[in-house]
Amino acid sequence: MGSATSKVSLKLMIEPKGGGRVLYAEAGKEFVDFLFYILALPVGTFIPLLNQEMVGSLGNIYDSIANLSTTYLRPNVNKDSLLKPKAYFSSGTAGFPLQLPNVESSRKLYKCCLNVFERKAICGCGSSMSRESKYIGPPSANNPYSSNVGDYVKGEVTYMVMDDLAVKPLSTTSLATVLNKFNVKDTGVLQEKVVDLGVEEVLKLLKASLLSKSVLTDVFLPVF
């Protein structure tokens, strides 16, 4: 299962005016990879992590599945495949220190006839898919069975992560655009603050990303 194996740092650029807000953060590859990794996770992994503290009704769908008698499920449907979906990431992926806790990963495939599934199931021919199969294909970040999953952006680049988690390379042009957007005339008024991310911060970021357009401010400014 995934875990945050080491700390990752962010440099927050804060505008103190009006109670304070994070204009943007300077981030390295590790943090940007983590943000992209979130998008690749099955939605069902979010709800247990957040203790169902979500705006909306996804938690109700989760509870409905948990409470539904197997009498109403098709024979080849396993509840755990919906309630505890597996993400295709190895917990030891090099260069990928930030991961969500308790996210199960799997690289196993099972086959029967010409069908291949990520879990043991009943094939269309009626036989059990119990034979393990290997995926053969070119390794790439888009291939969920590749060892490169979780390794999305180039290193040795500083990225600008906005308060709403929009990501772009940090450059003179992108910085000028942000300062102009927020009507910041003097960069000297901005405060710098370096924060470390571990398991607790990762979960707060995940929750805030589902609820807010000011994620970095909501997660990190209350500590100041």
Order of H and E elements: EEHHHHEEEEEHEHH
- Radius of gyration over all CA atoms, rounded: 21 Å
Outline the low-pLDDT stretches.
1-5, 90-95, 134-142
The largest sheet has its strands arranged as: 7-6-2-1-8
Helix content: 25-40%
* Termini gap: 33 Å
Shape: elongated
Number of domains: 1
- For the residues shown, what is the average pLDDT? 76
The secondary structure category is alpha+beta
Q: Strand portion, in percent?
A: 15-25%
Largest sheet composition:
5 strands, antiparallel
Number of strands: 8
Organism: Quercus lobata
Protein name: DUF674 domain-containing protein
Description of the structure:
- By secondary structure, this protein is an alpha+beta fold.
- The chain is 27% helix and 17% strand.
- The chain has one domain (8-141, 150-223).
- The strands form 2 sheets. It has a 5-stranded antiparallel sheet. Strands 4-3-5 form a 3-stranded antiparallel sheet, with no helix packed on it.
- It comes from Quercus lobata (Valley oak).
- Pfam families: DUF674.
- This is DUF674 domain-containing protein.
Give the SSE map:
Layout: E1 8-15, E2 21-27, H1 29-40, H2 46-49, H3 58-67, H4 79-83, E3 109-112, E4 115-117, E5 131-133, E6 159-162, E7 167-169, H5 172-181, E8 191-197, H6 199-211, H7 215-220
Antiparallel strand pairs: 1-2, 1-8, 2-6, 3-4, 3-5, 6-7
